[in-house]
Amino acid sequence: MTVISSSDRLYRAIQGRRNRGLGGLYLVVAAFVVLYAILFPGILSMGGFAKFTQNWFPLALVAMAQALMMLTGGISLAIGPLVSLGAVIAATTMGGSLGVVGGVAAVALTGLAIGAVTGVIVAHLRLPAIIVTLAGSFIVTGVALILLPRPGGFIPDWLSDALAGHTPTAFLLLGLILLMWKAFLATPLGLGIYAAGDNPVGAFRSGIPVERTKVVAFAVSGLLACLAGLFVAAQTGSGDPIIGTPFTLNSIAAAVLGGVGFLGGKGTMRGAICGSLLLSVMINVMFFLGFPPVAQYVAQGLIIVSAVAVPELIHAWRAKR
Amino acid sequence: MNVTKTSRPAHLQKALKATVAAGCFLALSTGIASAAANCVKGDRKAPYTIGWANIYSVPTWMKQTEGTISAEAEELKKAGLVEKLMITDAQGNAQTQIQHIQSMIDANVDAIVVIAGSSNALDRVISDACDKGIAVVNFDSLVNTDKVTAKINTDSGEWGRVAATWLSDKLGGKGKIIVMNGPAGISVSDDRRKGAQPVLDANPGLEILTETNTEYNVAPAQEAMTSLLFANPEIDGVLSLGGSLSAGAVMAFDRQGRDQVPITGENARQFLELWKEKDLKAWATMQPNWLGALSVYTAVQALEGRNVPAFIKVPLPVIDDTSVKGYLDRADKFPADGYIYSDYDKALFDNLIAQ
Fold it and tell me: Which of A27, A261, A274, B347 is packed most tightly, with the most Cβ within 10 A?
């Protein structure tokens, strides 16, 4: 009993520490969601909720992919190109002999394989992830352009309607992925990601296979990015070899907003997802408030800065009292 | 989508055509004048709210285009036809543009005017808008779906063809040329290049030294051309397919002290001024900025119950040695890094819609 309660306390303490500093973000996100619901009550309907979450979903996935990389102490510049590649593979395989199942498998395997290869190069050759993924981004972009030189390809209508129709499938999938992440974190390998990112030497001495953990994290990150591409293809009904490009920067923005640190081992998936939600809901709120585009650029920057700075300021102010 | 389109069997197409014809006949014979344009259901009343879903507002061409859109909306406001113009900027992100168009549907605008950030990505959200009876007018970068009120554009293939023909004639069908393209993976850039190919094939004397892919801006084009000048001592002509690429090329030749060669281009003010200053052998066409104004006008006309064609093909205005002066005379009305577009008025728009 005492063992359970003390580990329980430890778990709470760690979760509490991880949530610290995110309180402000949660408040800002909640405020924006409420404001959006006031401006556009249709969001509370099934169709409105479905459409909104569909537009947010791919960003949430790449935010998770990037957070995973950052937890290992790296950063990926290949997230966007991987989204494009995922979309291109989905759109070029599903109309052929592979069919939908084969297409999904092809996308997933590609993501896992590219992620794993990157992970092996980074972990075993001890190269910085930022350089390896920068090089990887050029290769992946090139391959996507070779496979599909201009937008096109084919996604069956039923798949588009199932994933991105008038039902909140995307939101349910996001919930499912979060549950799987929770389950993964409960395994030694999952725990190892935090440990290996936070203190690789300490983790190694505690018996964690640091290299293997990194490779797994990279592979899962690649998988998530390619699956985001698959979803984008389904949402748009086609493939586009450059549609993912903006996702690289946005995934970093979402993860950083969500409190994921650059140095590894610090941050949470829920934070990254909240960060992506803020980036997404912000666009709709500014539209309904009727901001002109130039003001949107400024407002976007201000919102991001304040979402990060305000919690810090509150913290400093409290510490001073 | 392309796959299904091209693989649709011929007999099915015939059957479809027959059905359409029968439908038309039925409409005529029963005296139902269903003249309404595509997407328009006739339940929306003036003044209208118009959404302008821009993909990226920063390039000068876009700013000037937005200028013609705002000016047209102001005109129509005075006529009591337009109430409000809502403007969005997707900052180059097609995914954000989908989100913007979805918000416009949610806000129940009456018309959406759009330059697509991807030829396929917007298909589904635009079909949704069309189903809601929103007049959708798409110009410049076009979408794949036909569920729009109207598409408005010049012919990118023709652009490439006419430019290549001019250069080939100028060089007597023989010589070493460099082809300058816009970014890879962009439909417009791809279409212009494809349009040029048959002409290049028909003139085997034209040898393509190399091709460039850059943004449609002066600096990257100049940089690309500068390194090509080092590598190629003999260049007889430049087939530049748009934007400010030509201005960049001419400046690269100039900096290196190389003699200028025949070059094709666009109506960028900088290029037209260089044309006069360096007395270039040049030819230019344009993607008129007033396509934006025409789109707003067309959307409002459709909402007012006028039948508008599903595709409005705008003829490419050509600038040659005789007409370049007329354009340069008006240069000070346009930004220094902008495009000097041909004049437009309501009569021109009415003619184009009536074609």
Answer: A274
Q: Which residues pair with B112 in a beta bridge?
A: B51, B136
Sheet holding B175-181, edge to edge: B206-213, B175-181, B237-240, B263-266, B282-285, B318-319
Instruction: Return the residue matching tokens 């000016």.
Output: B71
Three-state DSSP class for residue B282: strand
Q: How far is B220 from chain A (nearest CA, A)?
A: 18
Q: B314 by DSSP, 3-state: which?
A: coil
| Interface residue B184 vs chain A (CB under 8 A) | yes
As a whole number of angstroms, the longest Cα–Cα distance in chain B is: 73
E-only strand ranges, chain B: 48-54, 82-89, 111-114, 135-139, 150-153, 175-181, 206-213, 237-240, 263-266, 282-285, 311-313, 318-319
Residues of A in contact with B95 (CB under 8 A): 55, 58-59, 232, 243, 246-247
Minimum CA–CA partner of B92 in chain A = A246
Which residues of chain A neighbour B53 with C-beta distances below 8 Å? none
pLDDT digits (tens, 9 = 90+) for A23-55: 788 888 999 999 999 999 999 999 999 999 999
- Indicate whether A311 pLDDT > 80: no
SS3 B268: strand
Q: Which residues of chain B have pLDDT under 70?
A: 1-35
The two structure tokens encoding residue A214: 């990194």
Query: pLDDT digit string (tens) for B135-150?
Result: 999 999 889 899 999 9
Cβ neighbours for A271, distance < 8 A, ≥ 6 positions apart: A18, A22, A25, A67, A258, A259, A260
pLDDT at A6: 67
DSSP code at position B259: P
CA distance B124 to chain A (A): 6
A vs B, Cβ pairs < 8 A, gives 113
* Amino acid (one-letter) located at B139: F
For B125, the token pair is 């959200």
Distance CA A116, CA A223 (A): 9
Q: Give the integer Cα–Cα distance in Å for A75 and A65.
A: 10
Q: For chain A, give every domain's residue range.
A: 51-268
Q: Do A164 and B124 touch (CB under 8 A)?
A: yes
Which amino acid, residue B4?
T
Q: Is the ipTM of this complex over 0.90?
A: no
Question: DSSP readout, B104-164?
Answer: HHHTT-SEEEE--SSTTTTHHHHHHHHHTT-EEEEESS--S-S-SSEEEE--HHHHHHHHH
The tens digit of pLDDT for each residue in B65-120 reads 999 999 999 999 999 999 999 999 998 899 999 999 999 999 999 999 999 988 88
> CA B142, A246, A185 angle in degrees (round to 5)?
135
What is the model's pLDDT at position A97?
Answer: 85
Phi, psi (degrees; rounded to nearest 5) at B300: -70, -40
- Residue pair B270/B201 in contact (Cβ under 8 Å)? The answer is no
Chain B residues near residue A283 by CB distance under 8 angstroms: 96, 99-100, 103
Coil/strand/helix, residue A286: helix
